[in-house]
Amino acid sequence: MNVIVVGGGAAGMMAAYGAAVSGHNVILLERNEKLGKKVFITGKGRCNLTNASGIESFYSQIVNNPKFLYSAFNAWDNNDMIRFVESAGCPVKVERGNRVFPVSDHSSDVIRALESRLRETGVDIRPGCDVRSASVKDGSVTGVRLAGGEYLAADHVILACGGASYPSTGSDGSGYKLAETLGHSIRKPYPALVPLLSPAKWVHEIAGLSLKNVTGRLLRNGRETVSEFGEMLFTHEGISGPIVLSLSSRYTKGDEFVLDLKPALNERTLDERIRRDFREYNNRSFGNSLDRLLPKSLIPVVVERSGIDHDKKVHQVTSEERAGLVKLLKSFDIPVTGTAGFKEAIVTGGGVNVKEINPSDLTSKLVGGLSLAGEMIDVDALTGGYNLQIAWSTGYLAGTGIGW
């Protein structure tokens, strides 16, 4: 069978491989000059290609439609992916949070491993091919037409065009339009795993400050909807870092962002800690007594927001003022107005409606000879290598799920 895969990203490369090892003749079309352009920049260029946790734990990390992925993960899981790249000459290592990276810390080695497997299995790789439309006859896809007008016939087409995040890599949302022309409905795409914007001047002034072992919470109408423990970063536009990116996937405009700066301590033990520091710094001013408790650049912000005079001696700080300081540190609100948008989003939420796709083989329920894979489907996950594993797994299943 002649198969065309549209999109040379993570899902597209794996779909092409899956179809090729299943005995099909495969053409892989990529609009960029090279394969894996988005894979190249993931993990800040290191490529967090999967997660080494048990596959059952993956489902708790998936934000949208986890059950849809049962068959995909069963067909190709994280261990399959690790063995795949290592056997192709790219050894991996496991870091904090069970994140898996190439030993070299170079995403190009992951891409090179994939490309070598594609060539070994006879995939016809064609970069610089921008697919503009797909033709349908008698309810089945018969081929695709390129931007230059060239028509390529096919018995089966796999759409793996990516989402709308990092549009400079080619993931500009055009895949959704292509799916729509074939009759599929799209859940409105939105930026996920994305920094949050803040209008607060003090946030911008401490840009570059990284906080570890803190808990971020989203509140909606005063009630907590989700929380994350870990690291975060202040930027010139707002806040970012692992916990912020994860929380952003569940952020709704109007939500409040609140930080617990000392999650390991309850209010009573935190108060005892502050009193102990105050006793040691008995003759210091309040503004100079917090250096063991907080990062240097955050201290002026906390002092100002506490309402306690910077120059007040710590032995003069009242129990009421100290109690207010404790509450501030445990519920440190940061104003946010929205997300930074698709240009800074790691992945895209939303996409092709999963109800229109057969989860067992990722073929379309609406059009014959069509499969869909990767980020363009309405599935996404939190940080940690889970989103790339979704791409690998759905791509492989789409490729191997093609009938004869």
Describe this structure in words.
The protein has 13 helices and 22 strands. By secondary structure, it is an alpha+beta fold. The chain folds into two domains: 244 residues, 3-Layer(bba) Sandwich (FAD/NAD(P)-binding domain); 146 residues, Beta Barrel (Elongation Factor Tu (Ef-tu), domain 3). The chain has a seven-stranded antiparallel sheet. A hairpin with a 3-residue loop joins strand 15 and strand 16.
Concise overview:
The chain is of the alpha+beta class. The chain has two domains: 2-191 and 347-400, FAD/NAD(P)-binding domain; 195-340, Elongation Factor Tu (Ef-tu), domain 3, CATH 2.40.30.10. The protein has helices at 10-21, 37-41, 55-58, 70-75, 78-87, 107-120, 174-181, 201-205, 242-248, 267-280, 299-306, 319-330, 386-400, and strands at 2-6, 25-30, 50-51, 62-64, 92-95, 99-102, 124-127, 131-137, 140-146, 151-153, 156-159, 186-192, 196-197, 210-220, 223-234, 238-240, 256-260, 332-334, 338-339, 347-352, 370-372, 380-381.
